[in-house]
Amino acid sequence: MAGCGMSCLKILGAVFGGGLLLTIGILLGHFAIPKGETGQGAPNWVKTVGRDLDESLLQSFMDQVESGKIRENLKALAARPHMATTEGDEELVKLMLSRWQDPQTGLDSASEDVYGAFLSFPDPQKPNSVTVVENSSLIFSTRRSEKNVTADQAHADVVQPYAAYAPPGTPRGKLVYANQGKRSDYQELVNMGIDLNGTIAITRYGGAGRADKAVNGAEFGVAGVVVYTDPADINDGRASEKETYPNSWYLPPSGVERGSYNGYFGDLLTPYYPAKDFTYRIKESEIQGIPPIPTQPIGFEDALMLICNLDGPEAPSAWQGSLNCTYKVGPGFRTGGMFPNTSDVQVNVHNQRRIKNSSNVMGFIRGSEEPDRYVLYGNHRDSWVHGAIDPSSGTAVMLEITRVLGKMLKEGKWRPRRSIIFGSWGAEEFGLIGSTEYTEEFYSKLRERSVAYINVDISVFANATLRAQGTPPAQSVIFAAAKQVQSPASSSGSVYDNWRNHFNRNSPIYGNIPNLGTLGAGSDYASFIHYLGITSMDIAYTYDRNKTSARIYPAYHTAFDTFDYADRFIDPGFTSHQAVARTAGNVLLRLADSLVLPLNVSDYGEKLDELYNVAAQGDFLANLSASNISLDPLKAAIGRFKLAAADFNQRITKLKEEESPSPLQIRMVNDQIMLLERAFLNPLAFPNKYYYSHVIWASKSSNHATFPGLADAYTNAVKTGDWDQVRKHLTIVVQAVESAASTLEAVA
Ligand SMILES: *[C@@H]1O[C@H](CO)[C@@H](O)[C@H](O)[C@H]1NC(C)=O
Ligand SMILES: *[C@@H]1O[C@H](CO)[C@@H](O)[C@H](O)[C@H]1NC(C)=O
Ligand SMILES: *[C@@H]1O[C@H](CO)[C@@H](O)[C@H](O)[C@H]1NC(C)=O
Ligand SMILES: *[C@@H]1O[C@H](CO)[C@@H](O)[C@H](O)[C@H]1NC(C)=O
Ligand SMILES: *[C@@H]1O[C@H](CO)[C@@H](O)[C@H](O)[C@H]1NC(C)=O
Ligand SMILES: *[C@@H]1O[C@H](CO)[C@@H](O)[C@H](O)[C@H]1NC(C)=O
Ligand SMILES: *[C@@H]1O[C@H](CO)[C@@H](O)[C@H](O)[C@H]1NC(C)=O
Ligand SMILES: *[C@@H]1O[C@H](CO)[C@@H](O)[C@H](O)[C@H]1NC(C)=O
Ligand SMILES: *[C@@H]1O[C@H](CO)[C@@H](O)[C@H](O)[C@H]1NC(C)=O
Ligand SMILES: *[C@@H]1O[C@H](CO)[C@@H](O)[C@H](O)[C@H]1NC(C)=O
Ligand SMILES: *[C@@H]1O[C@H](CO)[C@@H](O)[C@H](O)[C@H]1NC(C)=O
């Protein structure tokens, strides 16, 4: 844990910087515009400074987005494996640069930012495996690589399945089945009378973070962890070769989900600092949140051999999966099964950790009127294997957006009001490294100037409906865009209508609307929202939940995530990719070109109410009352926020009605909108959690769906009686909401 010394200093710096800018702004307001001046004979900027979003240009952008071009992009991007820092990744760095520097369709400029990222790779000379051994003889070994089922998955660079950051070692012991490897799962085994000391635990993906399965197991004395994907969780129960890829989109029995076994994000050796040559690096032994014990993922074909031969009591019904047997928990193998009942399981891990140069590729379009205001759009570039869906479906979309914008730019038809920055992030799969290092390197500048961050990682999980996540101000701009894009599923409806059919909620203010999800920390938006407090959103097409309950698209992080898989099963025709490109591009243009930022600050009010209401009822409220803790100050703060937001929106309406609103007044309200999200930051709120400074969206472990700090402190207090932490976190929330209200109130 690196503490917050530096980040606190940086925040003070930002506050001072903001004050200075404001002062300069006021001075300019007094002296820059001569009184009584009209349009005639006025300087040129008077004609352009009030320019608003051009709807016909927006339409022309959407018309030019071609599904065929996205398909071509995807074919090029997924042609060879491109795991972070490998040759395939470096080839794509060149591809991105050449596209963004193209004289006909490129951006104003593009460049490469390099960081020395701490990564982890298997040893090609000593492949990892999970084996069954008796005495010194080998009885069974899991496969070293996935079965070759289609031509386009073969390549010498396909990395064998492994758990990135799991330490090397060859622990051996009796096998137990530990469900999802949650702390409660291991506890359940102990409650069943099983001694976990020295065992090897086999766990299925889901329920707990990848690294947590090993971190939790080690606390119970487990010596090694095996992780597999259960067909119940990913294949709607389908487990045979006949029913899986290449015959359907389901995961073949040999498929293995790779992944980073890392609970935090950003480069692990340089928390809070960009991973440059000059940067101080902590000791490897100081890293937290990675497996303390050897860990290895396997396919369900091999997991079946292990689980279906276990001895011991039956596993609880909630732990049963779709392998063809009743799951038992062990320890060890049953008599009369495939393996001698005395045999052990050994986890053989030979991973090596290395610092390697990883690049972000950055593309820029300079804004005409407000070049110092940034709209950011990004996706990572690195994959685990061919990565057709993750992440190339998103990169294929980003390249089509930049092609169309680049063309309009080079033809002199358009230049955005604000600057646009595109990021092709490196080493996301290892823990959001490229994007996090970028936010660390440009911490002050990005906090002072960024309007919003749009993330499109996997652009199409499935072809049924839009799925968007974001903070409440993003709702208005995403809705506006989604209403203008034709749904690929029907000839009449919009992406918005189709979205509302699939995922909706009843809003007390708007009635039935699509449900905008909340941002966790699953992709590169994490450091933008949690660390910098920049309004962020993530946009994709996704599943029809009436048709599949798959945890994620079945080929995720496996050798089967290929162009052929995407082309045949995820989005034949690429019309969903096209719909995402149009929607995300529409959002981008609205943010870059609208005179007044199209982010409705009032929408935060509904979310604050929702979080408040969870705390203000039932046991939660009763327990608070019993400890003399009142929610009244929070209620008052939220009331103040909603009033301030409504007044603020009225001021904007009036301003827009003016014949020629003062550019300084416009700039002032835009800055208030931009800085609203920043008002919810408190870098001292969660001293033990890297990067989580946003008081509304920080991660939490409690099940109570209220403010995260309050929820966790409450859950803890019910157990320990420490109600002072609840008082502290209530204060933190009240103070954040009051600050947010005060950001929106009339400035003087
Ligand atoms: C393992 O050793 C035990 C006794 O030490 C012996 O009974 C058994 O046959 C051995 N198994 C193998 C596969 O060698
Ligand atoms: C994988 O299978 C395809 C045919 O499906 C074949 O063309 C290719 O040579 C195979 N590759 C390897 C390494 O076996
Ligand atoms: C676990 O087993 C090891 C030997 O295998 C022993 O030294 C240790 O004391 C055991 N720990 C517990 C908590 O039983
Ligand atoms: C499931 O296992 C049983 C024997 O345990 C076998 O008869 C049956 O064919 C298996 N089913 C499948 C789908 O593999
Ligand atoms: C293990 O299997 C052998 C036969 O292979 C049997 O004699 C023995 O009783 C079994 N041990 C246990 C604990 O079930
Ligand atoms: C990364 O690249 C820089 C030059 O750009 C070089 O000085 C450094 O040694 C490289 N680091 C690694 C780990 O390759
Ligand atoms: C979605 O993909 C499936 C094939 O996986 C296809 O049958 C269906 O027509 C597609 N739907 C849309 C709306 O494109
Ligand atoms: C899903 O199924 C439910 C229940 O049958 C139905 O009400 C709903 O409209 C379906 N959703 C979609 C998007 O088809
Ligand atoms: C902004 O949000 C408020 C409440 O959330 C709503 O009443 C208002 O209509 C919205 N304004 C616009 C322009 O959408
Ligand atoms: C506090 O909450 C617990 C449940 O978490 C409940 O059992 C208990 O009755 C509550 N205490 C009060 C005073 O309401
Ligand atoms: C709550 O306040 C009342 C009245 O001030 C006092 O009698 C009581 O002891 C307090 N309870 C707690 C748990 O602090």
Summary of the model, kept short:
This protein has 748 residues and is α/β, with parallel strands linked by helices.
Tell me what you see in this structure:
It is a single-pass type II membrane protein. Its cofactor is Zn(2+). Keywords: Aminopeptidase, Calcium, Cell membrane, Disulfide bond, Glycoprotein, Hydrolase, Membrane, Metal-binding, Metalloprotease, Protease, Signal-anchor, Transmembrane, Transmembrane helix, Zinc. Homodimer. It contains 23 helices and 19 strands. The protein is of the alpha/beta class and 748 residues long. The chain has 3 domains: 5-33 and 601-744, Transferrin receptor-like, dimerisation domain (Transcription Elongation Factor S-II, Chain A), CATH 1.20.930; 55-119 and 354-593, Aminopeptidase, CATH 3.40.630; 123-350, Glucose Oxidase, domain 1 (3-Layer(bba) Sandwich), CATH 3.50.30. Strands 1-12-14-13-15-19-16 form a 7-stranded mixed beta sheet, sandwiched between helices. Mean pLDDT is 94; it is low at 1-37. The protein binds 2-acetamido-2-deoxy-beta-D-glucopyranose (11 copies). The site of one 2-acetamido-2-deoxy-beta-D-glucopyranose (NAG) has 3 residues, from loops.
